[in-house]
Every structure is written in C-alpha cells, then in structure tokens.
Specification:
mainly alpha; Four Helix Bundle (Hemerythrin (Met), subunit A); two-stranded antiparallel sheet; globular; transmembrane helix; membrane; iron; Cytochrome b561 domain-containing protein; electron transport
Length: 284
C-alpha cells in the first residue's frame, strides 16, 4: 500500500471544497516498463480495459449508490416472457375475432372485448414493472411506470370497455349482469375502484389520506396483496368471457378458446405470481 505522501494518491484541492478531488488522470504502475498502466477518471464511467481507482471509502460508497445493481432473480426472465406472451395471445385473438366479424353490426358491444383485453395488457405490464425493484432509484422509476400503466391507461380503458357493454345492453333492453362473466366483471370493477383508492391514498400527497408517514406506508402491502388477487380474478373473468359467454359461443372455436382464453390467462397469472417477492409485504 502506498504511503500518504505517495504521489500516486489523489490530492484534495486547497482553498476549495474539502471533498472535491482533482479530476486529473493519475497514471500509476508498479512497473512503468510493463505497459500495465492504470488510471482513475472521476469524469465518467470506467472505459474498457481500464481499472478505476478510488482513493477513499467515501468515494467508493458514493459511486456504489449512483449505480443500479441487477435486481432480477433466476427465473424472473422466463416468467416475464411467459406473462407477456400470454397477454399478447389473449389480446391479439380478441381484437382479430372482433375486427373480422363485422364489428359495426354489434354497435357498442364491439368496443367491450378489445378494450378489456387492452386494459389487461396495461395491468400486466404495470404489475411486472414494479416486481424486481428494490433500490430507491428503480423503485421511483418503477412506480411512475406502474402508475401510468395501471391508473392512467388500464383503469381508464377497462372502465370505458365496461361502460360500452352496459350501454349496449341498455339500448337493446337486455338484463344486466346475468351471466357469470358479467357478475365477475362487476366484482372486478368495484374491487378495482377500491384498489385504486387504497393505492393512491397511501402514496399521493405523502399519504395524507391515511395519516402520512409509516401509517400510510403500512397500507401498501395490503394494496399489493389485494392487487395480485384481483389480477388473477380479472384473468378468470376473461376466461369466462372467452369460453362461456354468448359471444364466445358464436365466434370463438373450442381450440381457440382453449389456447387464448384458458391456457393464456393461466400462463399470465403463473408468470406474474412467480415473480412475487413475499418479503416485501412482511405480514405479521
């Protein structure tokens, strides 16, 4: 180890901030003739083939905090791909089925299946974008993506899709919420409103709705658990709509219903649930 007087140790600038270190590159080598030179460069990240040296533990800690460490676990990648593949199959099948069967003939109802399937795409992304986050920077970025996908897009789209079905049945004087698909759909919408209320209230404006601070933060684990259960319930509702509804009986063949509305929803739930980190909830 070089001594404090060694010329190889970066010096602090005099007359300036005591923590400001010269940004000059200091060549160091135990053997100048070996060609094995190393230098420190505070002005940016390390370049290929260069070892960046740090003179103090403080500098090292600051550098570690500025870097984002890998957060994924073994299996997270395939689970993500499984969920995205499943929701892609479900959405594409739904849109193709509607668009290829004279959607104008069905009026408002033609908006219902495509919008609900699109909302499920946003919900799937919104949930998974938060799952691997465990560092302050990634948590903050993940929360913004989650809020945008789930609240601004997913919630708005699924509400409009539900409204389209209600308007269609009202116009044609049909009974509302008679099928299992409709009943579970209504349950999902009511639950979703409560889910949004709980999630937004625990974080917006510092969680003032629920007492701020740790009181509000303590509710987040319940919001998380509730969301995972609701997510699975939504996929089950999609299964009911794609296999057991009147629309499915008319336009969806048995093989398509099996793949797009039975296997795909199950794959989505498996993919999302397998990425859950129960340690984040800490129920006691």
């Amino acid at each position: 180890m070089p001594s404090e007087a060694s010329s190889n140790t970066p010096r602090t600038r005099l007359g300036g901030n005591s923590t400001e270190v010269d940004r000059e590159r200091l060549l160091t080598s135990d053997n100048p003739d070996s060609g094995d030179h190393r230098y420190r460069d505070d002005s940016g990240p390390a370049q290929p083939g260069v070892e960046v040296l740090f003179s103090t533990n403080v500098e090292m800690g600051a550098d570690e905090e500025s870097q984002v460490k890998p957060e994924g676990r073994p299996g997270d990648g395939w689970a993500r791909n499984l969920a995205f593949a499943g929701v892609g199959i479900l959405a594409i099948t739904t849109w193709f089925t509607i668009l290829s069967n004279d959607p104008a003939h069905y009026g408002w109802f033609a908006l219902h299946p495509p919008m609900q399937s699109l909302a499920l795409c946003f919900f799937t992304y919104g949930v998974m974008t938060l799952q691997p986050t465990s560092q302050p920077k990634t948590k903050a970025a993940g929360f913004i993506r989650h809020q945008t996908a789930v609240f601004y897009f997913g919630f708005s789209i699924i509400f409009l899709g539900t409204l389209a079905a209600v308007i269609h049945k009202t116009i044609h004087d049909m009974n509302q919420f008679q099928t299992w698909h409709a009943k579970f759909g209504l349950l999902c919408i009511v639950w979703l409103v409560g889910q949004v209320f709980l999630g937004a209230g625990s974080v917006w404006n510092g969680g003032s709705l629920f007492g701020r601070g740790m009181k509000a933060k303590a509710l987040w684990k319940y919001h998380r658990l509730s969301g995972y259960i609701l997510f699975a319930l939504m996929m089950f509702t999609a299964h009911l709509g794609g296999v057991w509804s009147g629309w499915a009986a008319t336009f969806v063949s048995a093989p398509v219903g099996l793949v797009a509305y039975t296997v795909a929803p199950a794959a989505i739930v498996i993919g999302v649930w397998s990425r859950v980190r129960t340690s984040k909830m800490q129920f006691r």
